[in-house]
Write a structure and sequence with these properties.
38% helix, 466 residues, Rossmann fold, 15 helices, alpha/beta
Length: 466
């Protein structure tokens, strides 16, 4: 499971700014106004090869009432779900009674708490920290989230004691991990029960029945698998209960833990913004993907054609994923999912040789040359694999970092087609190397100048004699 890091503190201490910094996004609204964040915001951050889940929370006040009281109950629920709490304070404002009150509320939870003194740009770290020593926290870091000063150093210290998310042999023994995700009431638990052939999870015609992620090992055709049934993720405006709000964390963890994700859609409902958000989470995590359009039974042929057209139009950006039309209740089409699951898993974990990738790169360049950059041609020389789940292809060359997005998509599609990498996203990374002949050219130029100068002197002496 990815570690969960919760950000909390008084209003306007910079929690949302730090959230955007850690997730490298602009998902959280930021303004010089207290109380802007009311609902929870979830995102995936990464430091090197260490991913983690970040939870942005609303500001805690001294005397909450009304909606603020409800909001702060959710903040404290975030503390329960977190592995680490980053307690943000304002280095420019100094210690306040509100900071002391928050610390008093946090202590009974027994969580690891890291004090983060924010907004310290241009200030002495030592002098800024002294004011907060009375809070009695052993871990303290000074940062400036708005300017990304000290953030990486802080996160390295925060993540160091936490377990790494690497796979081990025990994970491999459980086979392919399959997370079943989707909006509430689209039939996820019904699909899980149909796959297992028994009523292993509660399936009920009411949104929000599943409140946690459930891991279920099973064997199919002598192959081990682990199914992960997850809570349905609704739009935040429709999430009211505290326990349901934080089941979103479990869904995010399930996605990042899985090898393959089955996104379940309801054939009777249009593709919503929430479906798009779930797809974004899956793509961000780099997991292999299979689409299951459920409740396909009982529909007219015209309705089916309309749905197919809508899916092709709205989901064109994930054309690599195989789409299945199923009925989890009656079982039609469910068995076909496993061929796509196996193929997606094999594609996402396949080892790719450097010679084959380099040959494909050269063939792609010959077929379609990279564009000119500042009058100079981009030269892509060789490629090799940098990782898997998803496959990472590192391309080396001159001015490789200047490759435009359109050409990157061309290369991605070319690699996918030639390597038959179906069901998984592909990531390309471009690296520009120094010209190996750069110093040689300089040395050659100096030598040529010396020869030229010697020749000129020799010619001058000859002319003088004659």
């Amino acid at each position: 499971m990815k570690s969960v890091i919760a950000l909390l503190g008084r209003p306007n201490v910079g929690k949302s700014t730090l959230f955007n910094c850690l997730t490298r996004s602009r998902d959280a609204l930021v303004a010089d106004q207290p109380g802007l964040t009311r609902d929870r915001q979830f995102g995936i951050g990464r430091l090197g090869d260490r991913p983690y889940i970040v939870v942005d929370t609303g500001g805690l006040s001294d005397d909450p009432e009304g909606i603020d009281d409800l909001m702060q109950e959710q903040v404290m629920q975030a503390v329960v779900e977190a592995d680490v709490v980053l307690f943000l304070v304002d280095g420019r404002a100094g210690m306040t009674a509100g900071d002391e009150a928050i610390m008093a509320r946090l202590r009974p939870y027994g969580k690891r708490i890291v004090l983060v003194v924010n907004k310290t740009e241009g200030l002495s770290s030592t002098e800024t920290s002294i004011d907060f020593m009375s809070l009695g926290l052993a871990e303290l870091h000074t940062i400036a989230a708005a300017h990304k000063i000290g953030v990486d150093k802080m996160m390295a210290a925060v993540l160091a004691p936490l377990p790494d998310d690497g796979e081990d042999e025990a994970d491999d023994d459980q086979g392919i991990r399959i997370a079943v995700v989707g909006r509430p009431n689209v039939g996820k638990s019904t699909l899980v029960n149909r796959i297992l052939g028994e009523e292993r999870v509660v399936a009920f015609d009411q949104p929000g029945t599943t409140r946690d992620s459930i891991f279920i090992p099973f064997v199919r055709d002598e192959e081990p698998y682990t199914l992960i049934d997850t809570a349905g993720v609704r739009r935040r405006s429709r999430v009211s209960e505290a326990i349901e709000k934080f089941s979103i964390i479990k869904t995010l963890q399930a996605i990042t833990t899985a090898h393959v994700v089955i996104l379940v859609l309801d054939a009777h409902q249009e593709i919503s913004e929430q479906d798009a958000r779930l797809l974004g989470m899956i793509l961000e995590s780099g997991r292999a993907l299979v689409i299951a359009v459920n409740k396909w039974d009982g529909m007219t042929q015209d309705d089916r054609e309309t749905i197919r057209s809508e899916l092709e139009r709205k989901l064109s950006f994930i054309s690599f994923a195989q789409c299945h039309f199923i009925s989890a209740l009656h079982g039609s089409g469910v068995g076909d999912l496993f061929a796509s699951i196996r193929k997606a898993y094999d594609s996402s974990t396949r080892k790719l040789s450097t010679p084959s990738l380099t040959r494909l790169l050269q063939a792609a360049v010959e077929q379609h040359q990279p564009p000119l950059v500042r009058g100079r041609r981009i030269k892509l020389r060789y490629a090799h694999q940098g990782g898997h789940t998803p496959p990472l292809i590192i391309v080396h060359g001159n001015q490789a970092s200047a490759v435009p997005a359109a050409y990157e998509r061309y290369l991605e599609n070319y690699f996918r087609k030639q390597l038959k990498l179906d069901g998984t996203p592909i990531r390309l990374q471009f690296k520009s190397g120094d010209n190996p002949f750069k110093d040689k050219k300089k040395a050659l130029t100096k030598e040529q100048l010396a020869r030229s100068s010697k020749r000129v002197r020799k010619d001058a002496r000859w002319n003088k004699k004659t």
